[in-house]
Hints:
Elements: H1 12-24, H2 29-47, E1 53-58, H3 62-76, E2 81-85, H4 94-102, E3 107-109, E4 119-124, H5 136-148, E5 152-155, E6 177-181, H6 186-189, H7 193-197, E7 199-203, H8 209-214, E8 219-221, H9 224-227, E9 245-249, H10 257-268, E10 273-278, H11 283-287, E11 294-297, H12 301-307, E12 315-318, H13 326-334, E13 340-342, H14 345-348, H15 354-360, E14 368-370, H16 374-380, H17 382-386, H18 392-403, E15 406-409, E16 415-417, E17 423-425, H19 438-451, H20 456-474, H21 480-486
Binding site for AMP: 410-414, 439
Family: In the C-terminal section; belongs to the NnrD/CARKD family.
Binding site for K(+): 63, 123, 159
Amino acid sequence: MTKKEASPILTPNAMAAVDRAAAETGIDSYGLMIKAGWAVAATALRSHPGAIRFVVLAGPGNNGGDGYVAARALVESGAAVVLFHLGEQGRLRGDAARACADCPVRGAPLDDYHPRAGDVVIDGLFGAGLDRAVPESVAAIIGKVGALGLPVIAADLPSGLCGRTGQVLGAAFQATHTVTFMTPKPGHLLLPGRALCGALEVFDIGIPMRLVEAQAENLFENGPALWQNWLPRLGAESHKFRRGHLGVFSGGATATGAARLSAMAGLKAGAGLVTIAAPHAALAANAAHLTAVMLREIDDLAGLQQWATDPRLTAFVLGPGFGVGERARDFVLALSDRSLVLDADGITSFSGETDLLFSAFVTGEPHLVLTPHEGEFARLFPDIAADGVMSKVDKARAAAQRANAAIIYKGADTVIAAPDGRAAINTNAPPSLATAGSGDVLAGIAGGLMAQGLPAFEAAAAAVWIHGDAGNRAGRGLTAEDLLTAIHLPA
Length: 491
């Protein structure tokens, strides 16, 4: 099956390798810096055409070089510009020194900058390469700029953010716009970095994509290009059994709603048939609310084992409202050779029993999808969760490899990871998805896609994006029921 190409996300180290490769092929690195600086200036002029003055803050490296170029471009465009530099300009090297020499604006030391109303700040201090806390003098400037609420245009990344993790290193600018080059970096998309970047613009400064792709690290921004070609195409010969049969497990009589949300989401995601498997005590409660979804009585492990012999059952969802404990563990282990989405109570049931879960799914192609939020992730992977150096992407990848499963590490910056190292950061989910039942819908979408034959990672990534898209379609104030009606698969 032909796959569309998804655009990569590069870490700062990988982007530095791209820059070096570009220079080695004979591409003029100063020419690239000029394009970058002009892109920053263009964004500043477009977003703040009436600025009283632009204040360029230039650092001691190439990010500062971008700032010097931006200052020159702004002056040539007729804008009022002042410049303040961190460190001695005489110690600049390479392209940054050349950009400083070509800049018509005389700079003053950074400590001399006293922010005032009407300033538009161009942040060219550090960019994405920072790996330690910002100096106290920079933190003080960041605080003063933030206190006045001044607009900030960041070159590459707001200074003070880690480009690899999106975490704040002491203090960081709150940018209104961030202009980066060639590809986003993890720090642009992971929280809190995403919130601090403001509007993100990715500008192509002319580095050949073959050089970028040569440094790609199997990390992408989640979107249809990553998985759309895996979605099944309906033909004249299609019928419900060819579209997959999803089984969803219900909790007891007073805990049936979550399973119904998952089941309906599975139908909306394209599964041809969906059956809720419920204990006898929950049959009446479920039957009173079901129409297109079928119902089957499953009280114990023996009943599940008999049902699961039906080859037309192609995937299962276990966890939403199911209950925590030995019964959940037994059911999961009985399905260890089947495609399974494990959510909520299903995940919590393996707290302290993770080896039991992981060993059951260790062989073969990944066919387990785990959907932990922060707390559930810590229950399944306590050592990984506690690591203070790893990014959220690093953690999701490590968890996926350990569990031989696709991981949906949920949150406002959900990360999806596969055991082979592929990972995607999702960015389309609105805050309104933080509502009761939303996760049950997500699990059902993933189950519905797996039932149709999507591999675990592609099903997980598609489910997260479709879930976010449904949230945007449903609008502010949505309920889980609203999400169901808003589920839409890309054509």
